[in-house]
Amino acid sequence: MVVSQGAFAVMVFTDRWFLAQIDAVHVASAMGGGVAAFFSMSLFIGLISYANALVAQYHGAGQMQRCPRVVTQGVIIAVCALPLLALIGIGMGQAFPHLGHDPLQVPLERAYYYTLMAGSFFQLIKICLASYFVGIGRTQVVMAVNIAGICLNIPLTWTLIFGRMGMPELGIVGAALGTIVAQFLVIGLYLTIYFHRQHRLRFAVMDSFVLDKGVMRRYLRLGTPSALESFMNTATFNIFLLMFQGYGVVQGASMAIVFNWDMLSFVPMMGLSIGVMTLIGRFVGAEDMERANQVISSGFILALSYSGLLALLFLIFRVELVEVFATDDAYFDEIRTLAPMMMIGLCTYMMADAVILIASGVLRGAGDTRWIMFTSTSLHWLMLVAQYFVIVRWKMDPLVSWWVFVAMLLTISTAYAVRLYRGRWRHPERLARVMQE
Protein backbone atom coordinates (compact mmCIF):
# COMPACT_ATOMS: atom_id res chain seq x y z
CA MET A 1 0.00 0.00 0.00
CA VAL A 2 2.93 2.34 0.59
CA VAL A 3 4.15 1.65 -2.94
CA SER A 4 0.61 2.04 -4.31
CA GLN A 5 0.06 5.41 -2.69
CA GLY A 6 3.60 6.41 -3.56
CA ALA A 7 2.78 5.77 -7.22
CA PHE A 8 -0.07 8.27 -6.95
CA ALA A 9 2.27 10.80 -5.34
CA VAL A 10 4.78 10.36 -8.16
CA MET A 11 2.01 10.88 -10.73
CA VAL A 12 0.88 14.18 -9.20
CA PHE A 13 4.49 15.25 -8.63
CA THR A 14 5.44 14.71 -12.26
CA ASP A 15 2.27 16.44 -13.51
CA ARG A 16 3.21 19.58 -11.62
CA TRP A 17 6.85 19.30 -12.61
CA PHE A 18 5.80 19.19 -16.28
CA LEU A 19 3.60 22.25 -15.72
CA ALA A 20 6.50 24.05 -14.03
CA GLN A 21 8.28 23.88 -17.40
CA ILE A 22 5.58 26.28 -18.66
CA ASP A 23 5.46 28.82 -15.80
CA ALA A 24 4.64 29.33 -12.11
CA VAL A 25 1.02 30.29 -12.89
CA HIS A 26 0.37 26.79 -14.24
CA VAL A 27 1.82 25.21 -11.07
CA ALA A 28 -0.39 27.36 -8.82
CA SER A 29 -3.43 26.68 -11.04
CA ALA A 30 -2.94 22.92 -10.89
CA MET A 31 -2.80 23.18 -7.11
CA GLY A 32 -5.97 25.27 -6.87
CA GLY A 33 -7.96 23.31 -9.45
CA GLY A 34 -6.80 19.93 -8.15
CA VAL A 35 -7.67 20.67 -4.53
CA ALA A 36 -11.05 22.08 -5.59
CA ALA A 37 -11.78 18.86 -7.53
CA PHE A 38 -10.84 16.70 -4.56
CA PHE A 39 -13.02 18.86 -2.33
CA SER A 40 -15.97 18.46 -4.69
CA MET A 41 -15.62 14.66 -4.58
CA SER A 42 -14.48 14.35 -0.95
CA LEU A 43 -17.87 13.53 0.60
CA PHE A 44 -18.34 10.56 -1.73
CA ILE A 45 -14.68 9.53 -1.61
CA GLY A 46 -14.83 9.42 2.19
CA LEU A 47 -18.00 7.30 2.13
CA ILE A 48 -17.03 4.86 -0.63
CA SER A 49 -13.48 4.31 0.63
CA TYR A 50 -14.87 2.99 3.92
CA ALA A 51 -15.48 -0.18 1.90
CA ASN A 52 -11.94 -1.08 2.95
CA ALA A 53 -12.79 -1.43 6.65
CA LEU A 54 -16.15 -3.10 5.96
CA VAL A 55 -14.66 -5.73 3.66
CA ALA A 56 -11.83 -6.36 6.14
CA GLN A 57 -14.31 -6.83 9.00
CA TYR A 58 -16.41 -9.32 6.99
CA HIS A 59 -13.25 -11.09 5.85
CA GLY A 60 -12.00 -11.39 9.43
CA ALA A 61 -15.38 -12.76 10.53
CA GLY A 62 -15.26 -15.39 7.76
CA GLN A 63 -18.27 -13.95 5.89
CA MET A 64 -16.65 -14.09 2.45
CA GLN A 65 -19.89 -13.73 0.47
CA ARG A 66 -20.52 -10.37 2.11
CA CYS A 67 -17.24 -8.87 0.81
CA PRO A 68 -18.24 -8.32 -2.87
CA ARG A 69 -21.66 -7.10 -1.73
CA VAL A 70 -19.85 -4.10 -0.27
CA VAL A 71 -18.56 -3.34 -3.78
CA THR A 72 -22.10 -3.46 -5.20
CA GLN A 73 -23.36 -1.08 -2.53
CA GLY A 74 -20.42 1.24 -3.29
CA VAL A 75 -21.31 1.28 -7.00
CA ILE A 76 -24.93 2.07 -6.12
CA ILE A 77 -23.76 5.00 -3.99
CA ALA A 78 -21.51 6.24 -6.84
CA VAL A 79 -24.41 6.15 -9.32
CA CYS A 80 -26.65 8.04 -6.89
CA ALA A 81 -23.88 10.62 -6.46
CA LEU A 82 -23.78 11.55 -10.16
CA PRO A 83 -26.46 14.30 -10.11
CA LEU A 84 -24.91 15.86 -7.00
CA LEU A 85 -21.43 15.77 -8.53
CA ALA A 86 -22.76 17.55 -11.63
CA LEU A 87 -24.38 20.30 -9.54
CA ILE A 88 -21.29 20.70 -7.36
CA GLY A 89 -19.08 20.87 -10.45
CA ILE A 90 -21.14 23.61 -12.07
CA GLY A 91 -21.34 25.66 -8.86
CA MET A 92 -17.66 25.36 -7.95
CA GLY A 93 -16.59 26.13 -11.52
CA GLN A 94 -18.50 29.40 -11.40
CA ALA A 95 -16.85 30.35 -8.09
CA PHE A 96 -13.25 30.59 -9.33
CA PRO A 97 -13.51 34.21 -10.61
CA HIS A 98 -14.70 35.34 -7.17
CA LEU A 99 -11.85 33.88 -5.10
CA GLY A 100 -9.47 36.81 -5.47
CA HIS A 101 -6.87 34.87 -7.46
CA ASP A 102 -4.61 36.34 -10.13
CA PRO A 103 -6.65 36.85 -13.36
CA LEU A 104 -4.10 34.74 -15.26
CA GLN A 105 -4.73 31.86 -12.90
CA VAL A 106 -8.55 31.66 -12.99
CA PRO A 107 -9.15 30.22 -16.51
CA LEU A 108 -6.40 27.64 -16.00
CA GLU A 109 -7.81 26.55 -12.64
CA ARG A 110 -11.30 26.26 -14.09
CA ALA A 111 -10.18 24.21 -17.13
CA TYR A 112 -8.20 21.81 -14.93
CA TYR A 113 -11.09 21.49 -12.49
CA TYR A 114 -13.79 20.84 -15.10
CA THR A 115 -11.69 18.15 -16.78
CA LEU A 116 -11.05 16.30 -13.51
CA MET A 117 -14.72 16.54 -12.53
CA ALA A 118 -15.73 14.99 -15.86
CA GLY A 119 -14.00 11.83 -14.69
CA SER A 120 -15.25 11.94 -11.09
CA PHE A 121 -17.55 8.89 -11.42
CA PHE A 122 -14.65 6.75 -12.62
CA GLN A 123 -12.54 8.00 -9.72
CA LEU A 124 -15.19 6.75 -7.27
CA ILE A 125 -15.41 3.34 -8.98
CA LYS A 126 -11.62 3.02 -8.92
CA ILE A 127 -11.55 3.83 -5.18
CA CYS A 128 -14.32 1.31 -4.46
CA LEU A 129 -12.52 -1.53 -6.27
CA ALA A 130 -9.16 -0.65 -4.72
CA SER A 131 -10.72 -0.58 -1.23
CA TYR A 132 -12.21 -4.03 -1.83
CA PHE A 133 -8.91 -5.63 -2.83
CA VAL A 134 -7.14 -4.06 0.13
CA GLY A 135 -9.91 -5.27 2.43
CA ILE A 136 -9.46 -8.91 1.37
CA GLY A 137 -5.68 -8.60 1.71
CA ARG A 138 -4.82 -8.54 -2.02
CA THR A 139 -2.61 -5.47 -1.69
CA GLN A 140 -0.23 -6.79 -4.36
CA VAL A 141 -3.07 -6.40 -6.86
CA VAL A 142 -3.53 -2.75 -5.90
CA MET A 143 0.20 -2.12 -6.14
CA ALA A 144 0.54 -3.74 -9.57
CA VAL A 145 -2.53 -1.96 -10.96
CA ASN A 146 -1.42 1.45 -9.66
CA ILE A 147 2.07 1.01 -11.10
CA ALA A 148 0.52 0.09 -14.46
CA GLY A 149 -1.61 3.22 -14.24
CA ILE A 150 1.33 5.50 -13.57
CA CYS A 151 3.34 3.89 -16.38
CA LEU A 152 0.59 5.03 -18.73
CA ASN A 153 -0.15 8.34 -17.05
CA ILE A 154 3.33 9.91 -17.01
CA PRO A 155 4.22 9.55 -20.71
CA LEU A 156 0.63 10.28 -21.79
CA THR A 157 0.51 13.44 -19.69
CA TRP A 158 3.85 14.58 -21.12
CA THR A 159 2.60 14.14 -24.68
CA LEU A 160 -0.73 15.88 -23.99
CA ILE A 161 0.76 18.85 -22.11
CA PHE A 162 3.46 19.62 -24.67
CA GLY A 163 1.89 18.19 -27.85
CA ARG A 164 4.48 15.49 -28.53
CA MET A 165 4.25 12.38 -30.74
CA GLY A 166 1.40 13.75 -32.83
CA MET A 167 -0.79 14.63 -29.84
CA PRO A 168 -2.40 18.10 -29.53
CA GLU A 169 -0.73 20.59 -27.17
CA LEU A 170 -3.34 20.89 -24.41
CA GLY A 171 -1.31 22.38 -21.54
CA ILE A 172 -2.98 22.07 -18.15
CA VAL A 173 -6.03 20.29 -19.64
CA GLY A 174 -3.66 17.60 -20.94
CA ALA A 175 -2.46 16.95 -17.38
CA ALA A 176 -6.04 16.29 -16.25
CA LEU A 177 -6.88 14.18 -19.32
CA GLY A 178 -3.86 11.97 -18.71
CA THR A 179 -5.18 11.25 -15.21
CA ILE A 180 -8.64 10.31 -16.50
CA VAL A 181 -7.36 8.00 -19.25
CA ALA A 182 -5.13 6.23 -16.71
CA GLN A 183 -8.23 5.65 -14.55
CA PHE A 184 -9.88 3.66 -17.35
CA LEU A 185 -6.87 1.35 -17.52
CA VAL A 186 -6.85 0.91 -13.73
CA ILE A 187 -10.57 0.08 -13.58
CA GLY A 188 -10.24 -2.39 -16.45
CA LEU A 189 -7.40 -4.22 -14.69
CA TYR A 190 -9.33 -4.36 -11.40
CA LEU A 191 -12.42 -5.80 -13.12
CA THR A 192 -10.34 -8.42 -14.94
CA ILE A 193 -9.10 -9.75 -11.60
CA TYR A 194 -12.48 -9.27 -9.88
CA PHE A 195 -14.24 -11.52 -12.42
CA HIS A 196 -11.46 -14.07 -12.64
CA ARG A 197 -12.97 -17.54 -12.17
CA GLN A 198 -11.06 -18.46 -9.00
CA HIS A 199 -11.89 -15.19 -7.27
CA ARG A 200 -15.45 -15.19 -8.58
CA LEU A 201 -16.21 -18.61 -7.10
CA ARG A 202 -14.47 -18.08 -3.75
CA PHE A 203 -16.34 -14.87 -2.94
CA ALA A 204 -19.64 -15.64 -4.73
CA VAL A 205 -19.22 -12.54 -6.87
CA MET A 206 -22.10 -13.35 -9.24
CA ASP A 207 -24.52 -13.46 -6.29
CA SER A 208 -23.45 -10.03 -5.05
CA PHE A 209 -25.29 -7.84 -7.55
CA VAL A 210 -28.18 -6.96 -5.24
CA LEU A 211 -29.16 -4.15 -2.91
CA ASP A 212 -28.24 -5.73 0.43
CA LYS A 213 -29.99 -3.62 3.05
CA GLY A 214 -27.96 -5.00 5.94
CA VAL A 215 -24.62 -4.26 4.29
CA MET A 216 -25.87 -0.88 3.05
CA ARG A 217 -27.00 0.10 6.56
CA ARG A 218 -23.54 -0.69 7.96
CA TYR A 219 -21.94 1.13 5.04
CA LEU A 220 -23.95 4.29 5.69
CA ARG A 221 -23.84 4.09 9.52
CA LEU A 222 -20.06 3.72 9.76
CA GLY A 223 -19.06 5.37 6.50
CA THR A 224 -21.14 8.55 6.74
CA PRO A 225 -19.16 10.00 9.69
CA SER A 226 -15.98 9.22 7.76
CA ALA A 227 -17.46 10.89 4.67
CA LEU A 228 -18.54 13.99 6.57
CA GLU A 229 -15.12 14.26 8.19
CA SER A 230 -13.43 14.00 4.81
CA PHE A 231 -15.76 16.58 3.31
CA MET A 232 -15.56 19.08 6.16
CA ASN A 233 -11.79 18.79 6.53
CA THR A 234 -11.27 19.12 2.80
CA ALA A 235 -13.60 22.11 2.82
CA THR A 236 -11.56 23.86 5.49
CA PHE A 237 -8.29 23.01 3.75
CA ASN A 238 -9.67 24.16 0.41
CA ILE A 239 -10.89 27.46 1.84
CA PHE A 240 -7.54 27.94 3.60
CA LEU A 241 -5.71 27.21 0.35
CA LEU A 242 -7.87 29.62 -1.60
CA MET A 243 -7.41 32.34 1.02
CA PHE A 244 -3.65 31.72 1.03
CA GLN A 245 -3.50 31.93 -2.76
CA GLY A 246 -5.16 35.32 -2.40
CA TYR A 247 -1.72 36.57 -1.32
CA GLY A 248 -0.62 36.16 -4.97
CA VAL A 249 1.01 33.85 -7.50
CA VAL A 250 4.29 33.72 -5.55
CA GLN A 251 2.60 32.46 -2.40
CA GLY A 252 0.32 30.06 -4.29
CA ALA A 253 3.21 28.55 -6.25
CA SER A 254 5.33 28.31 -3.07
CA MET A 255 2.58 26.36 -1.34
CA ALA A 256 2.20 24.09 -4.40
CA ILE A 257 5.95 23.33 -4.35
CA VAL A 258 5.98 22.59 -0.61
CA PHE A 259 2.90 20.34 -0.81
CA ASN A 260 4.47 18.54 -3.77
CA TRP A 261 7.33 17.47 -1.51
CA ASP A 262 4.88 16.88 1.34
CA MET A 263 3.17 14.26 -0.83
CA LEU A 264 6.32 12.14 -0.90
CA SER A 265 5.89 11.78 2.86
CA PHE A 266 2.13 12.01 3.37
CA VAL A 267 0.78 9.93 0.50
CA PRO A 268 2.96 6.81 1.07
CA MET A 269 2.06 7.00 4.78
CA MET A 270 -1.59 7.09 3.70
CA GLY A 271 -0.87 3.68 2.21
CA LEU A 272 0.49 2.55 5.57
CA SER A 273 -2.61 3.98 7.26
CA ILE A 274 -4.84 2.02 4.86
CA GLY A 275 -2.89 -1.14 5.67
CA VAL A 276 -3.30 -0.51 9.40
CA MET A 277 -7.05 0.12 8.99
CA THR A 278 -7.42 -3.09 7.01
CA LEU A 279 -5.62 -5.26 9.55
CA ILE A 280 -7.41 -3.67 12.50
CA GLY A 281 -10.74 -4.25 10.75
CA ARG A 282 -9.82 -7.88 10.11
CA PHE A 283 -8.81 -8.52 13.73
CA VAL A 284 -11.90 -6.71 15.03
CA GLY A 285 -13.99 -9.06 12.89
CA ALA A 286 -12.01 -12.03 14.23
CA GLU A 287 -12.17 -10.68 17.83
CA ASP A 288 -8.37 -10.87 18.13
CA MET A 289 -7.25 -7.68 19.88
CA GLU A 290 -3.83 -9.07 20.76
CA ARG A 291 -2.93 -9.07 17.07
CA ALA A 292 -4.47 -5.61 16.78
CA ASN A 293 -1.98 -4.33 19.39
CA GLN A 294 0.89 -5.69 17.29
CA VAL A 295 -0.46 -3.84 14.25
CA ILE A 296 -0.56 -0.56 16.19
CA SER A 297 3.05 -0.90 17.39
CA SER A 298 4.33 -1.88 13.95
CA GLY A 299 2.44 0.97 12.28
CA PHE A 300 3.95 3.62 14.55
CA ILE A 301 7.48 2.23 14.21
CA LEU A 302 7.30 2.28 10.41
CA ALA A 303 5.55 5.66 10.08
CA LEU A 304 7.72 7.57 12.56
CA SER A 305 10.94 6.10 11.14
CA TYR A 306 10.00 6.97 7.56
CA SER A 307 8.70 10.47 8.27
CA GLY A 308 11.58 11.28 10.63
CA LEU A 309 14.23 10.36 8.04
CA LEU A 310 12.44 12.26 5.29
CA ALA A 311 11.95 15.33 7.51
CA LEU A 312 15.70 15.43 8.17
CA LEU A 313 16.49 15.22 4.44
CA PHE A 314 13.90 17.90 3.62
CA LEU A 315 15.38 20.21 6.25
CA ILE A 316 18.95 19.81 5.02
CA PHE A 317 18.17 20.09 1.30
CA ARG A 318 15.16 22.45 1.43
CA VAL A 319 16.71 25.05 -0.90
CA GLU A 320 17.77 22.46 -3.49
CA LEU A 321 14.32 20.84 -3.38
CA VAL A 322 12.63 24.14 -4.15
CA GLU A 323 15.04 24.72 -7.06
CA VAL A 324 13.75 21.55 -8.73
CA PHE A 325 10.65 23.57 -9.69
CA ALA A 326 12.56 26.63 -10.89
CA THR A 327 10.85 28.57 -13.69
CA ASP A 328 12.20 31.22 -16.05
CA ASP A 329 9.66 33.90 -15.13
CA ALA A 330 10.05 36.83 -12.73
CA TYR A 331 8.07 35.16 -9.95
CA PHE A 332 10.69 32.59 -8.99
CA ASP A 333 13.11 35.03 -7.37
CA GLU A 334 10.51 35.63 -4.65
CA ILE A 335 9.49 31.95 -4.54
CA ARG A 336 13.15 31.08 -3.92
CA THR A 337 12.97 33.11 -0.69
CA LEU A 338 9.53 32.09 0.64
CA ALA A 339 9.30 28.38 -0.20
CA PRO A 340 12.43 27.24 1.77
CA MET A 341 11.01 28.95 4.87
CA MET A 342 7.75 27.06 4.38
CA MET A 343 9.75 23.83 4.00
CA ILE A 344 10.86 24.28 7.64
CA GLY A 345 7.20 24.20 8.68
CA LEU A 346 6.72 21.06 6.59
CA CYS A 347 9.59 19.35 8.42
CA THR A 348 7.97 20.35 11.72
CA TYR A 349 4.60 18.71 11.09
CA MET A 350 5.67 15.56 9.23
CA MET A 351 5.97 13.54 12.45
CA ALA A 352 2.54 14.81 13.49
CA ASP A 353 1.16 13.55 10.17
CA ALA A 354 2.60 10.12 10.95
CA VAL A 355 0.78 9.99 14.29
CA ILE A 356 -2.48 11.21 12.75
CA LEU A 357 -2.44 8.68 9.93
CA ILE A 358 -1.64 5.62 12.05
CA ALA A 359 -4.03 6.58 14.86
CA SER A 360 -6.85 7.35 12.43
CA GLY A 361 -6.22 4.05 10.61
CA VAL A 362 -6.65 2.19 13.91
CA LEU A 363 -9.78 4.10 14.94
CA ARG A 364 -11.43 3.79 11.50
CA GLY A 365 -10.71 0.08 11.34
CA ALA A 366 -12.35 -0.31 14.75
CA GLY A 367 -15.39 1.74 13.66
CA ASP A 368 -14.69 4.77 15.88
CA THR A 369 -15.61 7.09 13.03
CA ARG A 370 -17.94 9.44 14.92
CA TRP A 371 -15.23 10.53 17.36
CA ILE A 372 -12.84 11.17 14.47
CA MET A 373 -15.50 13.21 12.69
CA PHE A 374 -16.28 15.49 15.63
CA THR A 375 -12.68 15.97 16.78
CA SER A 376 -10.98 16.48 13.44
CA THR A 377 -13.74 18.67 12.02
CA SER A 378 -13.82 20.91 15.11
CA LEU A 379 -10.06 21.49 15.06
CA HIS A 380 -9.99 22.13 11.31
CA TRP A 381 -12.72 24.74 11.52
CA LEU A 382 -11.04 26.39 14.51
CA MET A 383 -7.91 26.67 12.34
CA LEU A 384 -9.96 28.17 9.52
CA VAL A 385 -11.40 30.87 11.78
CA ALA A 386 -7.87 31.75 12.88
CA GLN A 387 -6.75 31.85 9.24
CA TYR A 388 -9.58 34.21 8.34
CA PHE A 389 -8.32 36.76 10.86
CA VAL A 390 -4.65 36.23 9.97
CA ILE A 391 -5.11 36.47 6.19
CA VAL A 392 -8.26 38.51 5.56
CA ARG A 393 -8.78 40.77 8.55
CA TRP A 394 -5.28 41.42 9.85
CA LYS A 395 -3.43 40.83 6.54
CA MET A 396 -0.44 39.30 8.30
CA ASP A 397 2.64 37.81 6.66
CA PRO A 398 2.11 34.52 4.73
CA LEU A 399 4.51 32.72 7.09
CA VAL A 400 2.25 33.54 10.05
CA SER A 401 -0.63 31.84 8.26
CA TRP A 402 1.60 28.87 7.44
CA TRP A 403 2.62 28.37 11.09
CA VAL A 404 -1.03 28.49 12.18
CA PHE A 405 -1.61 25.57 9.81
CA VAL A 406 1.37 23.72 11.32
CA ALA A 407 0.02 24.29 14.85
CA MET A 408 -3.35 22.81 13.87
CA LEU A 409 -1.72 19.57 12.69
CA LEU A 410 0.30 19.28 15.90
CA THR A 411 -2.91 19.72 17.94
CA ILE A 412 -4.81 17.05 15.98
CA SER A 413 -1.96 14.56 16.38
CA THR A 414 -2.02 15.09 20.16
CA ALA A 415 -5.80 14.54 20.33
CA TYR A 416 -5.60 11.33 18.26
CA ALA A 417 -2.74 9.94 20.34
CA VAL A 418 -4.68 10.55 23.57
CA ARG A 419 -7.80 8.85 22.16
CA LEU A 420 -5.78 5.85 21.08
CA TYR A 421 -4.00 5.57 24.44
CA ARG A 422 -7.15 5.78 26.57
CA GLY A 423 -8.63 2.81 24.70
CA ARG A 424 -12.39 3.47 24.87
CA TRP A 425 -12.60 2.45 21.21
CA ARG A 426 -11.55 -1.13 22.07
CA HIS A 427 -14.24 -1.97 24.65
CA PRO A 428 -15.92 -5.28 23.66
CA GLU A 429 -19.45 -3.84 23.72
CA ARG A 430 -18.43 -1.03 21.37
CA LEU A 431 -16.81 -3.46 18.94
CA ALA A 432 -19.90 -5.68 19.04
CA ARG A 433 -22.06 -2.70 17.99
CA VAL A 434 -19.68 -2.00 15.11
CA MET A 435 -20.29 -5.48 13.65
CA GLN A 436 -24.09 -5.21 13.88
CA GLU A 437 -26.06 -4.80 10.64
From TrEMBL:
Pfam family, one: MatE
GO molecular function, one term: xenobiotic transmembrane transporter activity
Subcellular localization, as worded in the UniProt entry: Cell inner membrane
Entry keyword annotation includes Transport: yes
Family matches, as InterPro entries: MATE_fam, MATE_MdtK, MdtK-like
Any one biological process term the GO annotation gives: monoatomic ion transport
Record's bilayer topology term: Multi-pass membrane protein
Sequence intervals crossing the membrane: 35-58, 70-92, 112-134, 141-161, 173-193, 239-259, 265-284, 296-317, 337-359, 371-390, 402-421
Alphabetical UniProt keywords: Antiport, Cell membrane, Ion transport, Membrane, Transmembrane, Transmembrane helix, Transport
Entry GO terms, CC: plasma membrane
Keyword Transmembrane helix belongs to the record: yes
Main location per the UniProt record: membrane
NCBIfam families with a match to the protein in the record: matE
Stated name of the protein: Multidrug-efflux transporter
Species of provenance: Pseudohalioglobus lutimaris
Lineage: Bacteria, Pseudomonadati, Pseudomonadota, Gammaproteobacteria, Cellvibrionales
